Amino acid sequence: MQEIWVHALTVFMGFFAIMNPIANVPIFLSLTSGDDKKTTATVASRALLLSFLIVSVFSVAGKIIFDLFGITLPAFQITGGLLVFLIGFHMLQGDHSSVQHPSDKDKKKSLEAALSVTVSPLAMPILAGPGTIATAMNFSTGENFMDMAVTIVVFGVLCLITYVLFVSGEKFVTYIGASALGVITRMMGLILAVIGSQMVITGVHGAFNLAG
């Protein structure tokens, strides 16, 4: 029993370091700026549910999926990094990328438009990115089923914690005001661009190691 708790704590710390829900709160606020409270909660819940499903699937059958489609982790990291960089670049310029926000035409369907950020970039690659998936696969490759079960349960707990942080972020927006949020949006854009670049660098490095 003690080994299970030690493994659970290790998994939690690993996921927390990779996913970093606290640092993702300003990014989430930037992606959902202008949305009402109900829409924001819907975006958060759906993004985290999708992230949980993605991590669960890769925990159970990650290696099989990669082998089936001939995908390598470096290729996944490079593609995800380019997407994150693109979104961060647009945020840094004070613009909204088509990936991040809907067009004026789509805003007539406010809920559907707001939910466009649920899958990308929120669920993937920000929440369930290459690092999170790789971490899940590593923690799930133990000698028994319990390692896999603990990995999935612990990530589910982390998703619940992240949801609470996301939905309570509205108070933060109200407190700092729209102007300050604009500044934060640009700062988060820079951070996202750097994260994307780092993901690409890690992917390229891994690709060279595979080639070597």
TrEMBL record:
Subcellular location: Cell membrane
Keyword Cell membrane: yes
Transmembrane spans: 6-31, 43-65, 71-92, 113-133, 145-166, 187-208
One GO CC annotation: plasma membrane
Coiled-coil ranges (or none): none
Swiss-Prot/TrEMBL keywords: Cell membrane, Membrane, Transmembrane, Transmembrane helix
Membrane topology: Multi-pass membrane protein
Family of the protein in this entry: Belongs to the UPF0056 (MarC) family.
Name by which UniProt lists this protein: UPF0056 membrane protein
